[in-house]
Specification:
Layout (H helix, E strand, L loop, with lengths): L3 E6 L5 H11 L5 H8 L5 E7 L2 E13 L2 E11 L2 H18 L5 E7 L12 E4 L8 H13 L5 E2 L4 E3 L7 E2 L18 E9 L1 H4 L3
Parallel strand pairs: 4-5, 4-9
Antiparallel strand pairs: 1-2, 2-3, 3-4, 5-10, 6-10, 7-8, 8-10
Length: 205
Amino acid sequence: MSIAITNQDCSSLSEIDLEEMAQLSGFGETAFGILSKERDLWVTAFIARNNSNICGFVLATLERIGGTPTVLFGLAAAGSARVVQSLSDAVRRKARVAFPDEDVIFALRAGDESALVLLEGVVDPNPVPRGRPGGEERAWARRLAKRFEIDQFDESKMVAKYGEQCRTIQFPNPPKFVQVHKVAGTKSEYTLAWGWAQVELLENY
């Protein structure tokens, strides 16, 4: 399978694009409506295509939070591990170009461990099974929770309550590496996970 990755403004996604993404996402009958709303919440769409058919996507925003380069992952889905890896590589290339010679925070909302593949290689991953996080980790957790517009958030566990506005990442399989402890992964809770993608990591993309 030949995979081609492109990135474009989320606002430029057509209804045909959204229909293909909805079929892939697994969000059920409401998928098209969810994606129509999510299109307005994120800036950049990374689209994986096989023979012009969408086989994966990531909606994300690259910005600075308090001056710190940050990649916020929104909605995402893919049909295979190979597509996931291609999308992850594309995001990292974009981050390297957008924030040259800087460490970048990668942050996402994880409903299960499969989303954590986007954090592969980061340092100081959060949350980790080491007890209560320190003051700096809690401060960053609060900043990220605010940016994700999370209403009900436990900064000591980095666990949030699902709301109607929240959709998470749907990838096929959990990653082989273990960096972040088992995510909440319940019908009512998800985990805010994040870490630092250092310059040395991004230089490989």
